[in-house]
């Protein structure tokens, strides 16, 4: 609970300045709560005012995105980019295309991204963007026209030394390709470093598609090994989502000896006690862009259930929520604990509600918070930027090895910070504190 008088004041100001933005307020509250032990032992943070500056975005951009659908009808969406903090590097963070995108969601994601990027130890500030455009059910031509219109405004705000967007929900290699093409057309420059998540043929990095899911498993494996002398081997795993993060988390968890028995999309979940057949899922999601319910047509031994929440009633040892924010609530957390879950690590951003997180921490369940556990994607984006600057491409093995090293480091930095704060093993506190110290130090050195 937030009890420190000074931090409560900061939080009240955030609420007053950002009314009707529950996701952003939730993300700020969680971080301020974690910073309490630090602020109480280091008066310079309060004295300098750095925390007041830290919770206010440097810049928030909102713009109109007009595009024509296949029937020749004009459609209007809204585009956003928050350039939240550039203290330790150019703004960096994905673009999300989803009907739920709004200023609150963009600001919460951008705020989380500052600390996540700091944890990677790479020189990247925090940003995020997107649109309320829904790519579902749109033709390739419609997606292309939307992406071109989106970039026609966004291009003036980004650059390899300014702000480097990537993908997120609804934005994969197809969308990044269309946006890069439009950027190149407008500027007449092949600035490979302006976007990450590019395809291999024009400057992408090997392992980038796999990085968030693989990184999540590397982080979880290190957490299990150091805090419980355990591993993925022989464990039953439930993963929510069936997108980029969920698919590659399933692939790596399986390679590490676990059995993944469930996945979901926004309409329902599949339960396959024999272990998910990932080739079938990849074909449904990556090739056909169809619903996860198709899975049971090809694997009749599996079950499909409407609705997503039921996925957390499946008995498992490890739960990896990889779909979206606030998808795992208090009720689901209680069921998971009752069913004997020993480890939860967040692949999505803020998938567990604060109440659910508390249930896990109180029950002694190992808990990997998103900004540490899912940092593998942005870390590999950082490696993509390095390769673009060097005009070199590293092999799959080279990038994968660097990713493993980064995820292990993130775990140890967060764990060590939790010890320093007197909260040993609480990686929520550890990740927030470790990420914050570096950014705050740079901000104070720059002056306000
Ligand atoms: P994708 O668009 O590839 O996949 C998202 C998946 O989650 C889809 O299966 C989608 O189903 C499902 N989903 C979305 N909303 C809900 C919902 N309300 N309930 C249940 N399922 C839902 O996105 P990503 O895999 O890239 O991203 C997933 C999460 O991981 C996000 O929180 C993102 O911010 C985070 N993340 C992603 C990174 C990356 O590199 N891609 C990096 C770090 C974090 P449907 O298709 O039906 O909408």
List the keywords.
single chain; 448 residues; alpha/beta; Rossmann fold; 7-stranded mixed β-sheet; 5-stranded mixed β-sheet; binds NADPH dihydro-nicotinamide-adenine-dinucleotide phosphate
List the helices and strands and how they pair.
Layout: H1 5-17, H2 22-41, H3 44-48, H4 50-54, E1 59-68, E2 74-85, E3 91-97, H5 103-119, E4 125-131, H6 140-154, E5 163-166, H7 173-187, H8 211-228, E6 236-240, H9 244-255, E7 259-264, E8 268-271, H10 278-287, H11 295-298, E9 303-306, E10 318-321, H12 330-338, E11 343-345, H13 354-362, E12 366-368, H14 370-373, H15 376-390, H16 396-420, H17 427-446
Helix pairs in contact: 1-2, 2-5, 2-17, 5-17, 6-7, 8-9, 8-15, 8-16, 12-13, 15-16, 16-17
NADPH dihydro-nicotinamide-adenine-dinucleotide phosphate (NDP) is lined by residues 167-170, 212, 241-246, 264-267, 308, 322-324, 327, 347-349, 374, 377.
């Amino acid at each position: 609970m937030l009890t420190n008088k000074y931090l409560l004041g900061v939080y009240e100001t955030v609420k007053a300045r950002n009314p009707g933005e529950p996701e952003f307020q939730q993300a700020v509250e969680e971080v301020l709560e974690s910073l309490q032990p630090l602020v109480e032992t280091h008066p310079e943070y309060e004295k300098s005012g750095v925390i007041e500056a830290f919770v206010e975005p440097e810049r928030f951009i909102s713009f109109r995105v007009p595009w024509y659908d296949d029937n020749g009808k004009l459609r209007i969406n809204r585009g956003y980019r928050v350039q939240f903090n550039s203290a330790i590097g150019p703004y960096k963070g994905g673009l999300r295309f989803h009907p739920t995108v709004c200023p609150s969601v963009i600001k919460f994601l951008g705020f989380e991204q500052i600390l996540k990027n700091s944890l990677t130890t790479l020189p990247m500030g925090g940003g995020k963007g997107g649109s309320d455009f829904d790519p579902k059910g749109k033709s390739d031509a419609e997606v292309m026209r939307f992406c071109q219109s989106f970039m026609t405004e966004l291009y003036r705000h980004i650059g390899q030394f300014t702000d480097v967007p990537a993908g997120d929900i609804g934005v994969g290699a197809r969308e990044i390709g269309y946006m890069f093409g439009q950027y190149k057309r407008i500027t007449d420059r092949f600035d490979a470093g302006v976007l990450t998540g590019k395809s291999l043929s024009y400057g992408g990095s090997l392992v980038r598609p796999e990085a968030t899911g693989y990184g999540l498993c590397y982080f979880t494996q290190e957490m299990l090994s150091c805090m419980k002398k355990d591993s993925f081997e022989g464990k039953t795993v439930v993963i929510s989502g069936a997108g980029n993060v969920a698919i590659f988390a399933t692939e790596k968890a399986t390679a590490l000896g676990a059995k993944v028995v469930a996945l979901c999309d926004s309409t329902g979940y599949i339960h396959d006690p024999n272990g998910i057949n990932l080739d079938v899922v990849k074909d449904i999601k990556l090739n056909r862009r169809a619903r996860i319910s198709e899975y049971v047509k090809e694997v009749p031994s599996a079950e499909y259930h409407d609705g997503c929440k039921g996925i957390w009633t499946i008995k498992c040892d490890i739960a990896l929520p990889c779909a979206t924010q606030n998808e795992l609530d208090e009720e689901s957390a209680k069921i998971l604990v009752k069913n004997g879950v020993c480890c939860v690590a967040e692949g999505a951003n803020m998938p567990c509600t604060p109440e659910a997180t508390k249930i896990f921490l109180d029950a002694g369940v190992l808990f990997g918070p998103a900004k540490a556990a899912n940092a593998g994607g942005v870390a590999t984006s950082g490696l993509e930027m390095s390769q673009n600057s060097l005009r070199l491409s590293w092999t799959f093995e080279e990038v994968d090895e660097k990713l493993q090293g980064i995820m292990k480091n993130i775990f140890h930095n967060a764990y060590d910070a939790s010890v320093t704060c007197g909260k040993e093993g609480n990686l929520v506190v550890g990740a927030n504190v470790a990420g914050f110290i570096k950014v705050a130090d740079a901000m104070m050195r720059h002056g306000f």
